[in-house]
Amino acid sequence: MGVLDRNEFTVIAGPCAVESEEQIFQAAAAIAAQGVGILRGGCFKPRTSPYAFQGMGVVGLRLLREAAKAHGLRSITEVMDVETLDLIASQVDILQIGSRNMQNFSLLRAVGRTQKPVLLKRSFSATYRDLLDAAEYIVAGGNEQIILCERGIRTFEPFTRNTLDISAVPVLKELCRFPVIVDPSHASGLTRLVTPLTLAALAVGADGAMIEVHPCPEGALCDKEQALSFGQFGELMDSLRLMAPTVGRAMPLGSLLAR
Amino acid sequence: MGVLDRNEFTVIAGPCAVESEEQIFQAAAAIAAQGVGILRGGCFKPRTSPYAFQGMGVVGLRLLREAAKAHGLRSITEVMDVETLDLIASQVDILQIGSRNMQNFSLLRAVGRTQKPVLLKRSFSATYRDLLDAAEYIVAGGNEQIILCERGIRTFEPFTRNTLDISAVPVLKELCRFPVIVDPSHASGLTRLVTPLTLAALAVGADGAMIEVHPCPEGALCDKEQALSFGQFGELMDSLRLMAPTVGRAMPLGSLLAR
Amino acid sequence: MGVLDRNEFTVIAGPCAVESEEQIFQAAAAIAAQGVGILRGGCFKPRTSPYAFQGMGVVGLRLLREAAKAHGLRSITEVMDVETLDLIASQVDILQIGSRNMQNFSLLRAVGRTQKPVLLKRSFSATYRDLLDAAEYIVAGGNEQIILCERGIRTFEPFTRNTLDISAVPVLKELCRFPVIVDPSHASGLTRLVTPLTLAALAVGADGAMIEVHPCPEGALCDKEQALSFGQFGELMDSLRLMAPTVGRAMPLGSLLAR
Amino acid sequence: MGVLDRNEFTVIAGPCAVESEEQIFQAAAAIAAQGVGILRGGCFKPRTSPYAFQGMGVVGLRLLREAAKAHGLRSITEVMDVETLDLIASQVDILQIGSRNMQNFSLLRAVGRTQKPVLLKRSFSATYRDLLDAAEYIVAGGNEQIILCERGIRTFEPFTRNTLDISAVPVLKELCRFPVIVDPSHASGLTRLVTPLTLAALAVGADGAMIEVHPCPEGALCDKEQALSFGQFGELMDSLRLMAPTVGRAMPLGSLLAR
Hints:
The structure is a homotetramer.
Chain A: E1 10-14, H1 21-33, E2 38-40, H2 57-70, E3 74-78, H3 85-91, E4 94-97, H4 105-112, E5 118-121, H5 128-140, E6 146-150, H6 168-175, E7 180-182, H7 184-188, H8 191-204, E8 208-212, H9 230-243
Parallel strand pairs in A: 1-2, 1-8, 2-3, 3-4, 4-5, 5-6, 6-7, 7-8
């Protein structure tokens, strides 16, 4: 097995940002109860404005690790620079490179020198070729444990935050050997679109999806318009379980706790 | 029931252009055998260059009608101007307004004065709001039998012909009462993407899809890179039949002829 | 001399729409006093919504002709369909095809059969190649008196109405023999950008510009955020007169009336 | 005087990359002879593919400094990461942040803590607001010596490398207090468009332009399709000198050497 089990539709879930011990432990419990194996949570947040909430930093990193460990989950968080890379790599299981850093070539080379799987998000203005070239920077460092993630591109349509380019999935899978997942939360920016878009990702052949889930979306410190509540997340998982066999994918069962 | 049965996932299929009696009758037979109820075929073709094949015109229109009738199908073809509208409306069951004419307001008003259902394709640069405003021109004429069709938007990505905006489906269904279908053939321009994108359309909640099917794709006079053969179309229909119940949709059964 | 004097920087000016006899005569007087030779004014307006002001129609057409004649100007207005083409062609000197009709091939063929110069505006999502192919539809009808007009393309930037693609000018002039002008009013949608963008058009090599001018911009029935007052228009003309000789272009002198 | 003399139209010129001692000294001599005061030259190159030429690194940095010093010029080069920032800041006069790093927030904070002027290039998918927010990251570090640079955005048009958004200049100057320059070389990717686009930049109100100039463009190791020869650069400077007074700008005189 590589970095992801290709027979499964792998769900990565959790809050946009780690906000408190209570929040991340609640999120970890809820997603573990759904059989999901990877917990996401931002600690160092790349915010468009320097005056927006920038994440809990090192403290958040510790909380993410502890919450994941308590529920037998793997953890993933975003790496924003080479300075904090070693620290982050020592604490989490998967490193995330965000859209804005997709062509931060120094950072790509640096994560290429680690032994950690890397989730590489497509920049919202990158062509497929640009994304694959960026992945080559990681490969050039010796690390081939790469997961590509389509998360919406910039277009003229203002209704959604970005425009999910669902065709990216089959094309990228044709052009490379890496698993390809989708982030419907950032792509749409709208909670009510997350479930239909995740089902579309499953149908089109994606290897998984990364979903924002929060114990209390309306109180989230960032991206609250796009997070699912635990109840909404459970319904999404049920829909995925129903559809997955029709495209030849396995899905984890949820436990009684998730009901 | 309105213009489409909303419990079904309605497939509209046929060649890009009517090319000969043999071609359109073969196509009609093949799609009828799959249980599909609507035959498409261009007669007056809007080609980017005036020197490209422009369609069979009036003769094509008659062949389309006869092929549809012979197999108990409804027919649809594109209307390009007010001059030919009455003629076309007398021969086919559904009128199609193409992307390039989505804001041809004179034509929209004219089809609004007919009693025929209108399939309105989104321009490749129209926002959702623009598309809904265009539909209002038809409604203003007294015709509310409208089907909206997402067929890809223009972005910076050169790999696909256009970029299918799958989010258009749930958003348009939220904003209006018209059925919404998807055209994966024009959106991608690539045969091998048609099946995954049609499944994504079903998964995301579309009411149907319009698919280019040709007896011999490699010999098609237009858009041959995006047409399905009868065999590929049969496999697509099988995949749709498998997935449809998981999203609460019915699909027509195929007959023994389609095997 | 062809359709435009290529040694000059040709300014076409006037209101977005003909609104009243007083308005269009005032506008004609003001632009004539600046030495401008072509009066624009919409009579049949292509509005995104069917419930917006649609123009004065036939009455507007007569007023436009009379106002132009009274001041020795040529006139231009938009043609929206084949039905009204003969009427319009009998009343104005130059026919305009708007962005939304750039690929209305039936209309292109029809104006190609007239003897009138045609101003063809680039669709906001057309490539240079698409625009040149559209011009070929007019040429195919026998009419080579074509003026191309860049008027902004659709991008992700929301600040301006569209994004003026200034590079279109030198590229189109390289690829074809038609004069190329710019419409900074529609491109930007903002009065205060019209002067700098028109100067940029002159500097980049455009053969002219089409400018919205209104006796009372704040009271205009359409596009009031982008119209110049007579005073602002005079200042623009003065700036053009100052710069034109440095790029080898002539500009008409204004009369005492314009001061 | 701030980071740039706002009465002048400031030209920054030089090769895409420092390639050899001979090349950068020749370039420095040629641009100094034109009265240009700032020499550009990439040393650490952000290339889309890891297998493309990556620059001469530390050696290139020394050559750039020596060539600039020999001709009384200021120097500018791109900073790609925090690791090499101190080294680069000790060798050059102005730091450049490239498009791909416009939202590399760690790097923005780091250059904000230096005392060097920073040229911040707009990402090819950044809105004006995104660019201004990125500048705030530098300001937040205490450094307000910022120059903004428009260098083309990504659109659907394939003819040019990017689409120069000339409207960015007047809008950014309205929204902030920083000087705004244009990079026509990267925007168009085509040598023959550099002169018209630079004149458009001057006309629209830009405070300067950054131009790729190479002793032998056809032999350049990167971006050879967009570099000017010394002769072409001299003609551009002459055109700028002719136009500049008409928009109230000064331009440096060239010396006899440049003839």
